[in-house]
Every structure is written in C-alpha cells, then in structure tokens.
Automatic annotation (TrEMBL), chain A:
<dbReference type="InterPro" id="IPR018499">
    <property type="entry name" value="Tetraspanin/Peripherin"/>
</dbReference>
<dbReference type="GO" id="GO:0016020">
    <property type="term" value="C:membrane"/>
</dbReference>
<feature type="transmembrane region" description="Helical">
    <location>
        <begin position="61"/>
        <end position="77"/>
    </location>
</feature>
<keyword id="KW-0472">Membrane</keyword>
<feature type="transmembrane region" description="Helical">
    <location>
        <begin position="20"/>
        <end position="41"/>
    </location>
</feature>
<feature type="transmembrane region" description="Helical">
    <location>
        <begin position="263"/>
        <end position="285"/>
    </location>
</feature>
<dbReference type="InterPro" id="IPR008952">
    <property type="entry name" value="Tetraspanin_EC2_sf"/>
</dbReference>
<dbReference type="Pfam" id="PF00335">
    <property type="entry name" value="Tetraspanin"/>
</dbReference>
<keyword id="KW-0812">Transmembrane</keyword>
Automatic annotation (TrEMBL), chain B:
<protein>
    <recommendedName>
        <fullName>Retinal outer segment membrane protein 1a</fullName>
    </recommendedName>
</protein>
<dbReference type="GO" id="GO:0007601">
    <property type="term" value="P:visual perception"/>
</dbReference>
<keyword id="KW-0812">Transmembrane</keyword>
<dbReference type="InterPro" id="IPR018499">
    <property type="entry name" value="Tetraspanin/Peripherin"/>
</dbReference>
<keyword id="KW-0472">Membrane</keyword>
<dbReference type="InterPro" id="IPR000830">
    <property type="entry name" value="Peripherin/rom-1"/>
</dbReference>
<dbReference type="GO" id="GO:0005886">
    <property type="term" value="C:plasma membrane"/>
</dbReference>
<dbReference type="InterPro" id="IPR042026">
    <property type="entry name" value="Peripherin_LEL"/>
</dbReference>
<feature type="transmembrane region" description="Helical">
    <location>
        <begin position="98"/>
        <end position="120"/>
    </location>
</feature>
Length: 355, 372
C-alpha cells in the first residue's frame, strides 16, 4: 500500500519535469545568495576581530559550505530533470536517482542545522565580546606599542559608528587608565596623587574619550569630571545622562549581529522548506518514470508515490538490507544457483570428519 | 551637395543595423545610469541643504535626470527602428516619424552635453553657496533652543565627523564664533566676564573647538580647549601638532566630494549617444534609397546632412521662427515702414523729421500725423 499515490499522465510528467528544472535553477540562485550572505557575515566579523577574543567563524563557514553544496546539488538536479522529459535519456540516470535523493535528503538536514546554529550563535558571541572589549579598552592607551597601535582608532570608530560607550556603559572607562603615561605631567601634584591613590599605580579619572559624546545632546560635550556636578555650570550629573552615549558597545554590537543572524537564519529556513518540497516532487517524478519503464509503454499513465509500502514495512525492508549487508553469499539459500555435485560431496565429507 | 557621405553595400547595411541595435541597448543602459546618478546626486545635495546658501546647484542633477529619461525613450525607439530597418516592407512606416525624431534626439543629446558642461562650471557657484551656508551654520551652532535652528548642532557635528573636517576654511573659524550657548556659561566667573568684555559684541570667544573636530586617528586623547596655549597641556606644541584635530575645512571637503561626484558621469555616456545618433542617421538615409527598388541588395549612399551645415541650420530655423510668430509681429512695423519709405520719397517734409530721430516709432507717428 503506497503512501501518497498520485497518477501521472505523460503530459503531467513532462510538466512536472519542466517545473522541477526551473525550480532547481531557482535553488542554484538561492544557493549563491546563501554563499554571499556567508561571505558578508565573515567579513563583518573579521572587521571587528580586535574586540572579540575568539572569532566566531563556524557559522559563516557553514553558510558558505551550505551555499556551495546547494548550488552543485541543484545544478545536478536540474540536469536530471531536464533529461527526465525524455524517457530514453532517463536511463542514464536511473541508478543514480535514488542515491541522489537520499543524499539530498540528508543535505537538507544539514541546511536545517545551519539555520538553527544562526540563532544559537548569540551566547557565544556575547561571551567573546565581553572579554574582547575589556582587553581592547585596556590597550586603548598603548598607541606606541607595535601590534596594539590601532586599537585606539578601532575603538573610537566603533563608539562613533554604533553610538555606544565602553563595555557595559560609560562608567567602564573610569576603571581603566586610557591616557598614556607619555601625556601625563608628573610634575603636577594632582597627577601624582591620582597615581598613588590606587594599588596598581594607574591614572584613573572620571573622564571618557571624546567618541563617547552624544551628538544629539544640545550642550557642548562634557567629558572630564563627569561625576562632579559643581565642576561645570548648570550641570547635574544625575540629570545630564544623555550627554554621553548611554548604550554599552557590547550590547550595541550584539544587537547588530543578532539582527543580521536572524535575517540570515530566516532566509536559510525558507530555503530549507523550498529544498524539501523540490526533493519531494523529484521523488514523485522518479517513481512515476520508473513505473513507466516497468510498464514498457512510455506514453501510458503511471503512478508516483512517496513510499512504496507503509512506513513500518519500508523500515523493516531497509533494516533487513542492512542486516544482510555483511553476510557472504549462502550456497544453500538460493535454489536457482547450480552447485556442482563434487563440491557438495566435499562439503558433506568435511562435515562428517569434523562434526 | 551632401555632407559626410558614405557608401553602404548590402552587407555593410546589415552590419550597421545589427551594430546599431546593440549600441542602442547599451545606450539605454547608459541612460538609466545617468538617471540613477542624477537621483543620487539630488539626494546627496538635499541631505546637506542646511549648509548651502542657495539651491542653484540643483540644476545639474535635474538636467541629468531629464536627459537620462529621454535617452532611455529615444534609444528604445532607435532599437525598434533598427529591427525594422532591414525589412524593406516594414521600414516605410517609420518614414514620417524619422525627421522629428532626429530633431528630438539632437535636442536631448545637447541637453546631456549641457549637463556635462554644467557639472564642470557649477563649481564656483557651489563654492560660494557653501561659503555662506557654512558660515551661517557655524553661527547658529549654539542655538539649540531656537526653533528652526535646533538641529544645526547635530548637522554640523555629523558633517565634521563624516567628512573629517573642521570649521569653514579651517579650525580657526571656531575661534571667531561663539559656539557655547549663554545657558551654559557661568556669568559670575571672572574668566567668562573677562572674555565677554574683551570683544566689541560681547561674545564668549575662546580658542577651543567642538568635540566633532577631534581626529580619532590621533595617538593622544583629544585636546579641544586652549589649543593655542602650549603650556596648558603637557608635551604639546600646537604648531607641529597635526593629528589632534582635523585641519581640513568643511567647505573644501564638501566641494571636492561633490565635484568628484559630478565629474564622474561625464563624457563616456555622451560619446555613446552621439555614436548612436550618427549611426541611426546613416542607416535611415541609406535605407531610404532602397525603398521602391526591386533589388534590395544594391549599394546605396548614406549621409549625415542633405545640404551643408549652414544651409541646414537656416532651413530648420525658418519654421521655428515662423512658429514663434517673430516675423508676424514685425509685419505691422514692416508694412508701416515700407509705406513710410514710399511716402518719404514722395513727401520731402518728412525728411526733416527723419533727421531729428531715427527711431521707427517716431517715424511712424510723424508719418501718421503727416497723412492725417
């Protein structure tokens, strides 16, 4: 008893083959889109590599791999469908069709895993950003040390572009020495006091770099002595919070990447559903053409189905095949094979000697 | 006597038609690019409309948009004509349409040429507009509580950060403008009072710049106040310090940006249109000789103009002049002056009046007085 049996006339078969040919080419294009999305994500992550501890390259690499594989599989599928319109040409592909469909089925699972990974990337990214941003901020002042000299520039551009300040907020800058010793006047008592006031001898002040300034605030930016309300005229520290960017850069970057990942994940899910439907239709086409070949008349109607027998019977059948895969051919089993009597006698003699 | 004559055997005609068909599609793409570029330039100018004094510069993108759209239409028809050109049966239906079509094509190609020329010549107008616009914008930087000017601060800050520039000519423009609002100045402090008294208009001027002038590529945390005072900062010399703030003025930055945009579309597209036009004219004239002949594969002559250049211009201008009724308006005056000249010969008295003034109006009035 076949599952989802559909009867196909010759014209219906041809139409199905043509439609599948077009759909396969559409899939090739979506595969290319996926490949370019993976590249885009890779470049975006690479651009901010200085503020991440370990780069999350698994997801974009997977997307690139999935995209390329989709292109090649659907290209082959298109070729098969094109040949399906002519029953004689189909004979070339007869043996390959079933393995092709099984492979593509497992491949669609791979696409699904890729889509789910896009959504799961967030927690990895958050941790990576937390540690990466802290390290980058610590190296902010080291513009004269080779290897670290561009970190100041990167963080400044990051804070300006994403309108954020610090790791979790602007107060993070109060715990880090971000002014290099080269620019500190050690003859001033204030400076010496500051340095002596903490254990590690760091120059910590309640000041932030200029890139933390909020462009939309009507007052000229206050970046030094932020917590001291009396240091500036008509200024209350607790009321003038919008003077600086309120968002932390970790949250800003996370939001940005999560948006990209959600968009990409949605596209991959849609692609997965599309691939699955194309695969199902190809299976119908394959079974109907095989039945036509069995009937012998290429103009007649034939049945196409999803599974030949019910699910339990199919599972058992496949299980038996796997079970018998390892066993060598048994002489006693098949009556059609002619076994010569001499070999039979030798076997019986051996059995008698070694009971 | 024809101008720019060329011989066209059958194969050459075929190749001309095919090549022209391809070129016309390329020209459609060029026209579309022209149109898109015009739209892009218009939006870019609109974005910075607050730092420009006048909107004269809008003529450049408008010209590009119109010529781009016209180019798409004209070259689409050129393609259609090419497709029909080699079929002698279908070609005659285009016959009456071709002369006005060629005129239109010439007009719109000259429009593109004008657009290209304008984009080079508008530079000085743009510079003047930016000069005045930026000066005003700097003056209104502090007026974040005045309706209509409250976004100037944001605009200038974004502009300075995006184009990496400071001030109008350079950063010293900020020293001549009060950019800190009076709301944030402590008038009881001696320093503020001194500064306000030190200039005629009572403005608070200081040698400081807004934070958006700061250069992120600097190795040192930004110094934005007391820029000219070397002793105010440790290890600082303002004459040799280049990376601290942006040294380029915003006028120069914007000018070079817009000039680069306007120059980039240029002559390539124009050349394409001219080639299409010339090829189409050759095809039309060579096909006209084939119509009515029994053997369509004969060799024919193609030319650009039937008569030479000056005669063609006169021939085309005459109907245009008639259309504008310029001759008719003169007719009344012409008739009266003709009548007057006949009378002049007959009436010697007119001679004296004629000597007093040579103006036609006087002449006619005197003549009427005489005849009356």
């Amino acid at each position: 008893m076949a599952i989802l049996k559909v009867t196909f006339t010759k014209t219906k078969r041809n139409i199905l083959a043509q439609a599948l040919w077009v759909l396969n080419w559409v899939s090739v294009i979506t595969g290319l889109t996926l490949f370019s999305l993976g590249l885009f994500l890779k470049v975006e992550i690479q651009k901010r590599q200085e503020v991440m501890t370990n780069e999350i390259h698994m997801v974009p690499n997977m997307l690139i791999g999935v995209g390329l594989a989709t292109c090649s599989i659907n290209f082959l599928g298109g070729k098969i469908c094109y040949d399906c319109m002519d029953t004689t040409a189909f004979l070339h592909w007869k043996l390959l069709m079933l393995p092709y469909i099984i492979c593509t089925f497992f491949f669609t699972l791979y696409i699904l895993v890729g889509a789910l990974m896009c959504y799961a990337m967030r927690s990895d990214l958050e941790e990576s950003l937390l540690l990466g941003l802290w390290d980058a901020m610590c190296y902010y002042k080291d513009t004269d040390i080779p290897g670290c000299c561009y970190i100041k520039h990167s963080i400044d551009l990051l804070q300006m572009q994403f309108q954020c300040c610090g790791n979790g907020g602007f107060r993070d800058w109060f715990h880090i020495q971000w002014v290099s010793h080269c620019y500190l006047d050690m003859s001033i008592s204030n400076v010496v006091d500051q340095l002596q006031s903490n254990v590690e001898g760091k120059y910590l002040t309640d000041a932030v770099p200029f890139t933390c300034c909020n462009v939309h605030f009507p007052r000229p930016c206050i970046q030094h002595q932020i917590t001291n309300s009396s240091a500036h005229y008509n200024y209350n520290y607790h009321g003038a919070e919008l003077n600086l960017n309120q968002k932390g850069c970790r949250q800003a970057l996370l939001q940005y990447y999560t948006q990209i990942m959600q968009f990409v994940g949605l596209i991959v899910l849609i692609m997965w559903l599309f691939e699955l439907s194309v695969l199902t239709c190809m299976h119908f086409l394959q079974t109907s053409i095989e039945n036509v070949l069995r009937l012998g008349d290429s103009e007649s109607e034939s049945d196409g189905w999803l599974l030949k027998n019910s699910i339990s019977e199919t599972v058992q059948h496949n299980f038996n095949i796997i079970k018998n895969l390892g066993k060598c051919y048994q002489v006693d089993d098949d009556p059609n094979i002619d076994v010569s009597s001499t070999s039979r006698q030798t076997q019986e003699a051996i059995k008698q000697r070694h009971p | 006597m024809v101008w720019a004559k060329m011989k066209f055997p059958f194969e050459k005609r075929v190749k001309l038609a095919q090549g022209l068909w391809l070129l016309s599609w390329l020209a459609i793409v060029g026209g579309a690019l022209n149109f898109c570029f015009g739209c892009f330039l218009k939006t870019e100018i609109r974005r910075r409309t607050e730092v420009m004094d006048n909107s004269n510069i809008h003529i450049v993108p408008n010209t590009l948009i119109v010529s781009g759209l016209a180019a798409i239409g004209i070259n689409y028809f050129a393609g259609q004509i090419c497709q029909d050109a080699l079929d002698v049966g279908r070609f005659p239906r285009w016959k009456t349409f071709l002369k006005p079509y060629c005129c239109c094509a010439i007009i719109f190609t000259s429009l593109t040429l004008i657009g290209v020329i304008l984009s080079f010549t508008m530079r000085s107008s743009l510079e003047g507009s930016l000069q005045v616009g930026l000066r005003n914008a700097l003056r209104f930087y502090k007026d974040t509580d005045t309706p209509g000017r409250c976004f100037q601060k944001q605009t200038i800050d974004h502009l300075q950060m995006e184009f990496r520039c400071c001030g109008n000519n350079d950063y010293r423009d900020w020293f001549e403008v009060q950019w800190i609002s009076n709301r944030y100045l402590d008038f009881s402090s001696k320093e503020v009072k001194d500064r306000i008294k030190s200039n005629v208009d009572g403005r608070y001027l200081l040698d400081g710049v807004p934070f958006s002038c700061c250069n992120p590529s600097s190795a040192r945390p930004c110094i934005q106040y007391k820029l000219t005072n070397n002793s105010a900062h440790y290890n600082y010399e303002h004459q040799t310090e280049e990376l601290n703030i942006f040294v380029r003025g915003c006028r120069e930055a914007l000018l070079s940006y817009y000039t680069a945009l306007m120059n980039s579309i240029g002559a390539g597209v124009l050349l394409l249109f001219l080639v299409v036009l010339a090829s189409l004219r050759y095809l039309q004239t060579s096909m006209e000789a084939v119509i009515g002949q029994e053997n369509t594969e004969i060799e024919t002559e193609g030319y650009l103009l039937e008569k030479n250049v000056s005669e063609t211009i006169v021939e085309y201008l005459n109907p245009v002049m008639k259309l504008l009724l310029l001759n008719q308006v003169q007719d009344g005056l012409v008739k009266k002056s003709v009548r007057m000249s006949i009378n002049y010969r007959q009436l010697p008295q007119v001679k004296d009046h004629f000597k007093i003034s040579s103006c036609c109006v006087f002449l006619i009035c005197d003549n009427e007085k005489q005849t009356a």
